[in-house]
Amino acid sequence: MMLRKSGGLCLLAAFLMVTPQTLFAGQESAPPSLSGLAGGYIKRGDDALSNKDYDKARQYYQLALNPGFHATQDQIDYATKKKQEAENLQREANLTPAEKSLDAGKDAYRKGNLAQAKTSLLQVQSGTDQYEDAQQYLFKINLYEKAQGLEAQSPKVAIDIYDQLIADPSFPLNAQVKARIGELQTTAAKAAVPARSVSVVKDPKALLAEAHALQDKGDLTKAKAVFQEALGIDAKNAEALAGLKAIDDALRANADLQLKEGIKEFLTCDYRGAEDSLKQYLDSGAGHAGAAHFFLGAAETAETLQGQTDQRLRTDAGKQFSQAKSLGYRPVPGSVSPRILNVWKGSV
């Protein structure tokens, strides 16, 4: 009898483990962390979680998810989250400094924090596998900064650069840039001044006063035109002649600054910005044309070396180098990379 009774108890215990939801129907289940099979699974899952064995923890929690055990998805989600965090930490521990800087720069770029992105990307050293990727992001950031700097001086050029940026759907500030383009276009339309009527002859004193006012505002191009208009009335007007000389001196100084800015942009890998600045400098007719042609050709060559396939760039770079040679320009040693210098040497 004892043996049969004992066997019956064993059979009942086995039945309880197989179908707990049937036997306890209509009763409130005990908390899974305190009793029952689910509690055992959860306890094992908690132990595995403490030991950072996240895969095993998820397996135990998944077993406890049986509807009869009244477990929740939270434990599985938490184990999954901890596993991802552990994998991320392990991945970060294995990253090289260049990989860390590139990842930080790309993350800040995607969030629209271009200043922070630039700081991180500039830390990616040349010669690493990540350098070219970093330069691509830096090129877009430098282009954006260039457009911002040109808004007051050359709004049309700024709009052209902004248009180039928003053509890339991955640029993170597209919405802001589109709004800024609209603002610049509206401002330019309001500022448009009708052409001066040639049939109206103004008083020379009034013209001189207007020219000086424009000169004080820094609008040297318009001031120069008004001084020339005053000389059209009185070709020997000393005040107008002195004003023109002062403006020409200032424009030459500004042009020299623009040349320096173009060279600086080239050295910081902002090749498109360098091209814009150097072309504007050459259009001004300033004196250091040889240097401008050389660095313009160097910027276009650098773009082709980075993978730009536009044949026009390669052709124009050769023309710029040839023009620089015809003007007697000789590059300063170390001012460009050996690869660019080889292209320079091979140009006719």
List keywords for this structure.
17 helices; 4 domains; 348 residues; mainly alpha; disordered N terminus; elongated
Task: Set out the fold topology.
Layout: H1 2-18, H2 20-23, H3 36-50, H4 54-63, H5 74-94, H6 97-110, H7 114-121, H8 131-150, H9 155-166, H10 174-191, H11 204-217, H12 220-233, H13 238-267, H14 271-283, H15 289-305, H16 311-326, H17 338-346
Helix pairs in contact: 3-4, 4-5, 6-7, 6-8, 7-8, 8-9, 9-10, 11-12, 11-13, 12-13, 13-14, 13-15, 14-15, 15-16, 15-17
Q: How many β-strand stretches?
A: 0
Bin the helical content: over 70%
Please work out how many helical segments DSSP would assign: 17
How does the major sheet shape up?
Answer: none
What are the segments in which pLDDT stays under 50 over at least 5 consecutive residues?
1-35
CATH topology descriptor of the largest domain = Serine Threonine Protein Phosphatase 5, Tetratricopeptide repeat
CATH architecture descriptor text of the largest domain: Alpha Horseshoe
Distance between the termini: 113 Å
The outline comes out as elongated
In terms of quaternary structure, the protein is single chain
Provide the residue-averaged pLDDT: 78
Total of domains: 4
Residue share in β-strands: under 5%
Question: Taking Cα atoms only, what radius of gyration do you get, to the nearest Å?
Answer: 36 Å
CATH class of the largest domain: Mainly Alpha
